[in-house]
């Protein structure tokens, strides 16, 4: 099994060698960190990292991206991508992710061209095929490469090799942009993005690993936790601590989702 996984990794490196030069869309998440590591391993300085900075991208993630690219010795570029200025984005339609990804990757391709690079690679994996992800449509339309999906890497395989290679993201929680915390059709604002960001940072600081803070309306927080973390939230003193802190951030009501954490829970209303 281990040798099969290493053979797959060798095919990933060959993929990059065939491209010659590539700009990696780098968010500091599990997938894109592994992708950047592999690109650098395969083609060295012919791989660059490009990270988008916006109000839906937490500052901690941007700082982690900067630190890792520096530690790897990869040239790192940051593009400003203000989603709230994209026509229709703030109204949060079901194709919100398409609108965002299209604008973002257009900027990444423009930057890549300036650096004499024809290809942009993004980090979706084989598991991403099973959920509603309109952003992948934009990726395909613009011609971005998806090496992890093309080679057939699953999330668990990426984590396994990340651990083998000593990557800092091997056990990092999965992350999606903060706009994914809003129900479709509810207006996204910088204020509400900041409320969610602060609430999630608080739970991270308290030691929670996999969770989401979803926002409903202007002031309702719905916390999704791994069921194994429920007992801690049931403790009265800690429960009130969480409530008081989120109220400080602007929430009037704080609820615990009894089904627990799952990716794409906002897609459950689409009837797909």
Automatic annotation (TrEMBL):
<dbReference type="InterPro" id="IPR052188">
    <property type="entry name" value="Ni-pincer_cofactor_biosynth"/>
</dbReference>
<dbReference type="InterPro" id="IPR005232">
    <property type="entry name" value="LarE"/>
</dbReference>
<dbReference type="InterPro" id="IPR014729">
    <property type="entry name" value="Rossmann-like_a/b/a_fold"/>
</dbReference>
<dbReference type="GO" id="GO:0016783">
    <property type="term" value="F:sulfurtransferase activity"/>
</dbReference>
<protein>
    <recommendedName>
        <fullName>NAD/GMP synthase domain-containing protein</fullName>
    </recommendedName>
</protein>
<feature type="active site" description="Nucleophile and sulfur donor">
    <location>
        <position position="177"/>
    </location>
</feature>
């Amino acid at each position: 099994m281990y040798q099969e996984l290493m053979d797959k990794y060798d095919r990933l490196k060959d993929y990059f060698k065939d491209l010659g030069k590539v700009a990696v869309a780098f968010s500091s998440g599990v997938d894109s960190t592994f992708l950047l590591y592999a690109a650098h391993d395969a083609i060295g300085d012919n791989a660059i990292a490009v990270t988008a900075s916006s109000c839906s991208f937490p500052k901690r993630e941007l700082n982690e991206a900067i630190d890792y690219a520096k530690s790897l010795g990869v040239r790192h570029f940051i593009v400003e991508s203000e989603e709230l200025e994209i026509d229709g984005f703030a109204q949060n339609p079901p194709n919100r992710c398409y609108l965002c990804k299209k604008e973002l990757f257009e900027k990444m391709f423009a930057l890549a061209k300036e650096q004499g690079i024809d290809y942009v690679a993004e980090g979706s994996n084989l598991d991403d095929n099973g959920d509603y992800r309109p952003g992948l449509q934009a990726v395909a339309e613009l011609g971005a490469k998806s090496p992890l999906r093309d080679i057939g890497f699953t999330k668990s395989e990426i984590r396994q090799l990340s651990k083998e290679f000593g990557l800092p993201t091997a056990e990092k929680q999965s992350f999606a942009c903060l706009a994914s915390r809003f129900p479709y059709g509810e207006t996204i604002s910088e204020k509400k993005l900041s409320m969610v960001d602060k609430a999630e940072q608080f739970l991270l600081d308290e030691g929670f690993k996999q969770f989401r803070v979803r926002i409903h309306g202007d002031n309702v927080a719905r916390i999704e936790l791994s069921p194994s973390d429920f007992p801690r939230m049931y403790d009265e003193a800690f429960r009130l601590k969480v409530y008081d802190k989120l109220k400080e951030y602007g929430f009037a009501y704080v609820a615990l989702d009894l089904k627990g954490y799952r990716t794409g829970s906002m897609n459950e209303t689409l009837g797909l």
